[in-house]
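Quick illustration, no need to memorize.
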Amino acid sequence: MDDVSCHLRAAFCLPSSAMYYSRPLVPLLLSLIAGILTGYWLPDYPIWGYALVLAGAAGVLRAIIRRIPLRFAPLLLIAACGYLSIQPWTTRHLPANCISRFAASDIQTVIGVVLSDPSTDHHRQKFDVHCEYLQKKGPHFSLSGNIRVTVDGAVPDLDVGDRIRISGRIRLLNNFKNPGGFDYRRYLRFNGIQAAMFVGSGDVARDGAAHHHSIFKVIHDVRKKISHHIDQVGDTDERAVLKALLIGDTREIPKEITEMFSKDGISHLLAISGLHVGIVATSAFFTFQWILSRFSFFLWRAWTRKGAALLAFFPVLAYGLLAGMSPSTQRAVIMITVFLMSFLAEREPEAFNTLSLAALVILVIHPPALFSISFQLSFASVFSILFFLPRLGSPPDIFSDRRSRLRHTLLSPLWVSLSATLGTLPLVVYYFNQISLVSPIANYVIVPIVGFGVAPLGLLSATTSFITPTVAVWGLKCCATILGVALHLARFFAEFSWAAIQVVSPSIPELIFGYCLLFACFAMKPGRPFKQLVIPGKSSRHVPQTFKRRMGIIAVAAALLLGADAAYWGYQRFFRSDLRITVIDVGQGTASLLEFPQGPVMLIDAGGLSDHTAFDIGKMVIAPLLWQKKIRSVDILALSHTDSDHMNGMIYIADNFHVREVWTNGASANSIGCHRFMDVLQRRHLSPENFSTFSRHRDIRGVSIDIINPPPDFMTRSAGGESWRDTNNNSLALRIAFGNFSMLFPGDIKTAGEHELVMLYGNHLQTQVLVVPHHGSKSSCLPAFVDAVHPQLAIFTTGVNNRFKFPHPFAIEQYQHAGAELRNTAVDGAVMITDDGRNMQVTTAGSSDMP
């Protein structure tokens, strides 16, 4: 790598003391990243990309012919190539036979080849299929693209490469369209998935022979054999973690283990990274060196080390393929390959150049990897270790006493852990809204057990499984025993109530300012990464004063910007004077967020699925929206009724946010979701007040809230003969007013409930905005109720292509006839209303631009 640097510096005519150019692969990587990001934000302009490629290539060619310095032309060329490289994943121009073009509501049959092993999530199985044909009446249609199949129930014993037949509805990929929401559609598209199918276990069957003549099939068979040996040892958790550690198979890891590792800050142990690949490389290198040293031919020519390095590459590559080649594995394989090749070049590789080369190779092969969480965390952690470690715990020199060397040996793992934690903390907060307070000590204790105990013995056992399976199983049993100790320690750390804290989501500018402040502050401290900045005759740990001043300016500017940002959000949360309401897109369900003047927050319903363990709306949809708005406390949780599409999302919110009050009508249901919700309320000491004596009027920061349904004695009436008072008609209905603004949240009341409200309140029901009862059901649009409310804006809360066909055409017709503007969260996304008591503004989240 040093030779590459020298040649590039010579070509660019760059001074060797310039930090920016001393590692030429770094600016090339940054240029490629800039091009990929530009291509993502501004897609569908390939003509400009090709023009810039020609301009950059012309600049390079001109400099070579005229023998003049190359400065910016290569950077422009690489950035333009990056722009073009991401276009296949962002363009809207899909092939005519792409599977996404055949999405329809009728049942269709797809024939394709299995791409991944089925993963189990509760009673559902998921796997990816490469589509070949679409079967309809008559001839088959040739297909392109991949589809993600979710099967409710067990599936046949499928292997990668099997050709299968799936019958079901082809669905387009959709997001929950809320501010700050996770772009699931982009995530799947960047992983090559264009559509989805949800089918029953009887709708999947093999179709003909499997593909047995692929290298990937061989790798799959090897993984399956090792997995079979692991299945014979330990308990369920130990087996699942062992598979992740040895072959990169994380499909069987329970959510409890994943959450526990995240709480402890040791999630990186579940990814195949430099530790595992380094063990393979070291073992292979010394083994091949010993073998080659037995032959005088290699000894006389001093080829033992070079030959061992060259031969060790093949086990390293094989293990990377066996482990699934995740971004962290790819990074480790490339960096270790560069290190091994340095023996051939007889040059010591430069760490930052090597890291940049690994990132360049990954992004050239698969540009969307830039948006992968594992890619970002993997490279951020290694870069942080290279950058922070020399400043936190520099090794003692040769004149140090034994005590200093021992202290350094004992503290080195702690400094490594702290370095990685510092560099990845902003990203962890951004993606997971959590800070692990026990991470340094948990890593210090658990990582050596796994790294020097489980991983080496496990890899050795997996290797011997092809020779002596009995010995391999005994070795894996020892691994499981050692791993059991590590898991016990992980549980011990995670059980502390303060082990991890949840925090709000930082914005992209906040991430940038935070990283600038962090790195600028540490850059002013001497360390080996800046040895290229050395002034002749000075110590190698000297940092020039001009550089210190620049870093100081950056640190001060970043701190001021972060302070201004904190002041802005402080004003937005606690000092503004308007009322803000967000009717959230939760699919087929209802959830509304009210942000009162000067800070109080109320959540009316929270959506949810009937099986919230399969997908938790509260955790995956509601919580990210709250964190994005810098909300950690919810003053009031108001539950209209106990149907799952209103209640199940509240379980996570009640358990993970600071909640002060809970409003319900007091009714309960015999469902798993309701029992869990009540258990959380009891554990959090949030028992609702008795509804029959509960105040039906509340004023919060100038906003008037009235409970207009059900009546205080509705339970007595229900038992006394008013049989129409079912769960829906007993919904807690709220009317809010703020100045000239008013809005009605009627829950799922039906015609009978609407009729009673009209009889009780008449024209006093009139409001500017209405969340349409029962998602726009035909049984919940009484003309007299619509006329009495007479809304200016009617909001339907439905799911895309929901099985109930909501909103019903009759409901749409009623509100159109009343002159209301219609919005549907399934189409428009979250509806956001802002009112200062005089003027109302309405915006929507809109659809994702990703095709």
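Residues 319 and 624 are 37 Å apart (CA to CA).
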